[in-house]
Amino acid sequence: MDENGRLLGRITIDDVVDVIREEGEHQFMGQAGLSEDEDMFAPVMVSAKRRALWLGVNLLTAFLASWVIRQFEATLDQIVALAVLMPIVASMGGIAGTQTLTLAIRGLALGQLSHKNARWLLAKELAVGTINSAIWAVVVGVAAGLWFNDSSIALLIAAAMTINLIFAALAGAILPIALEKLGIDPALAGGVLLTTVTDVVGFLAFLGLATIYLL
């Protein structure tokens, strides 16, 4: 409707479904660093070139996470349990961040999210991250404590889990908005950068706290 009350057009349910389907495909492809124009029958060199960039970016971020772990090599040598539990902290952070990232990218694509209501999203995701971190920190802490029969390990992984889940939720909300502002497709770059944040923060929190309090 225009300002005079005249009908300008209409949006049918088919239009809405098409948008959701296209965005779903875009996001699904983006999680692998691909775009919708990626064709399975494209020439080898064309496909290789399209994918090489994000493989390279991912490699650099993987080296960064490995570098963080290397800084705590002495700690890992003394407390083997840390090496066993590290993937749990990183994985939980990755999933929590991806949930928020997915919602934010979808909101941007459908016009539901903009810089005007970004603060609302951050506040909401901070609250969600805090609640989930409290729940799963207790679950994982109890499981780790029973597994290794060590209350210190339980408290340590619970604290690291809390830190990483909260950071993951915030990163999942901030990254899509920031990338779009920079002119970078959030669906293509968001997943790679989010993984870096959750891995680095998770390892740094877990191993850093272990170095401070267990050695």
Descriptive report:
Residues 86-209 form the SLC41A/MgtE integral membrane domain. One of its GO terms (molecular function) is monoatomic cation transmembrane transporter activity. Keywords: Magnesium, Membrane, Transmembrane, Transmembrane helix, Transport. It is a multi-pass membrane protein. This protein is mainly alpha-helical and 215 residues long. It has a single domain (61-213), classed as SLC41 divalent cation transporters, integral membrane domain (Tetracycline Repressor, domain 2), CATH 1.10.357.20. The chain has helices spanning 13-30, 44-70, 73-78, 80-109, 118-148, 151-181, 186-213. Helix 1 (13-30) crosses helix 7, helix 4 (80-109) runs antiparallel to helix 5 and helix 5 (118-148) runs antiparallel to helix 6 (151-181). It is flat and about 70 Å long.
SSE diagram, text form:
Elements: H1 13-30, H2 44-70, H3 73-78, H4 80-109, H5 118-148, H6 151-181, H7 186-213
In short:
The protein has 215 residues and is mostly helical.
Summarize model confidence as the mean pLDDT: 82
| Structural Rg | 21 Å
β-strand number? 0
Helix content: over 70%
Q: Name the overall outline.
A: flat
Low-confidence stretches: none
Strand content: under 5%
Question: What is the class in the CATH system?
Answer: Mainly Alpha
Q: What does the main sheet amount to?
A: none
Measure the end-to-end span. Answer: 68 Å
Give the ordered list of helices and strands: HHHHHHH
What is the number of helical segments per DSSP (H or I, 4+ residues)?
7
What would the CATH topology be? Answer: Tetracycline Repressor, domain 2
Q: What's the name of the CATH homologous superfamily?
A: SLC41 divalent cation transporters, integral membrane domain
Integer count of domains: 1
What would you say the CATH architecture is?
A: Orthogonal Bundle
Secondary structure class reads mainly alpha
Keywords: Magnesium, Membrane, Transmembrane, Transmembrane helix, Transport
Membrane topology: Multi-pass membrane protein
Family: Belongs to the SLC41A transporter family.
Transmembrane segments: 52-69, 81-105, 126-147, 153-179, 191-214
